[in-house]
UniProtKB/TrEMBL annotation:
<keyword id="KW-0812">Transmembrane</keyword>
<dbReference type="InterPro" id="IPR008516">
    <property type="entry name" value="Na/K-Atpase_Interacting"/>
</dbReference>
<feature type="transmembrane region" description="Helical">
    <location>
        <begin position="25"/>
        <end position="46"/>
    </location>
</feature>
<dbReference type="Pfam" id="PF05640">
    <property type="entry name" value="NKAIN"/>
</dbReference>
<dbReference type="GO" id="GO:0002028">
    <property type="term" value="P:regulation of sodium ion transport"/>
</dbReference>
<feature type="transmembrane region" description="Helical">
    <location>
        <begin position="53"/>
        <end position="77"/>
    </location>
</feature>
<keyword id="KW-1003">Cell membrane</keyword>
<keyword id="KW-1133">Transmembrane helix</keyword>
<keyword id="KW-0472">Membrane</keyword>
<feature type="transmembrane region" description="Helical">
    <location>
        <begin position="142"/>
        <end position="162"/>
    </location>
</feature>
<protein>
    <recommendedName>
        <fullName>Sodium/potassium-transporting ATPase subunit beta-1-interacting protein</fullName>
    </recommendedName>
</protein>
<comment type="similarity">
    <text>Belongs to the NKAIN family.</text>
</comment>
<dbReference type="GO" id="GO:0005886">
    <property type="term" value="C:plasma membrane"/>
</dbReference>
Length: 200
């Protein structure tokens, strides 16, 4: 579980860095929650806390759903468009960092020459990319889904082991014999106490 959590954390941190560079606020929030819940799941495994692992499994199902949505978003499935500001919560016009900085991409800043356009406004031309940015985002999401599915299966396995151990645990005195606490008695018999130490 430890190695899997390390891979999940590295993948989430790598994605978090590039989403920060592209000001992608929705994925940043999702990545942050992923990092926290993976730590919680690891803690639950080490400390034998099944509830924490259940939280991890529920989050993993949501995380897989989120990554499927990202794949659909960048591949423009079902009326979604990668040109919208959905990933930035409509706060800014930023897009994926990979759009301008992908492998092999040549980025050119072109200043507009038309009158009436602000001087600090510029167009960015990107050419020569080996792989388009949307496919890089899809690859990132696919890796997240693969790691999350492995984590989900492993978490279910760990939960089942914890439940078996909990069911087979023999409490003090055993469950089948009698309780270690005696039931309260209605009548208590009082006996006189003989003093010790005095003899005649």
């Amino acid at each position: 579980m430890f190695c899997l959590c390390v891979f999940l954390q590295l993948a989430a941190l790598e994605r978090q860095i590039f989403d920060f560079l592209g000001f992608q606020w929705a994925p940043i929030l999702g990545n942050f929650l992923q990092i926290i819940v993976v730590i919680l799941g690891l803690f639950g495994t080490i400390q034998f806390r099944p509830r924490y692992i259940v939280v991890y499994t529920v989050w993993t199902a949501l995380w897989v759903t989120w990554n499927v949505f990202i794949i659909c978003f960048y591949l423009e499935v079902g009326g979604l468009s990668k040109e919208t500001d959905l990933m930035t919560f409509n706060i800014s016009m930023h897009r994926s960092w990979w759009r301008e900085h992908g492998p092999g991409c040549i980025r050119r800043v072109v200043r507009p020459s038309a009158p009436g356009i602000l001087e600090d406004y510029s167009y960015v031309s990107v050419t020569g990319c080996i792989i388009d940015f949307q496919y890089l985002e899809v690859i990132h999401s696919a890796i997240q889904i693969l790691l999350s599915l492995i984590g989900f299966v492993y978490a279910c396995y760990v939960i089942s082991i914890f439940m078996e151990e909990e069911d087979s645990f023999d409490f003090i005195g055993g469950l089948d014999t009698y309780s270690y606490r005696q039931p309260p008695q209605e009548h208590v018999e009082l006996k006189p106490v003989k003093p010790v130490g005095r003899s005649k």
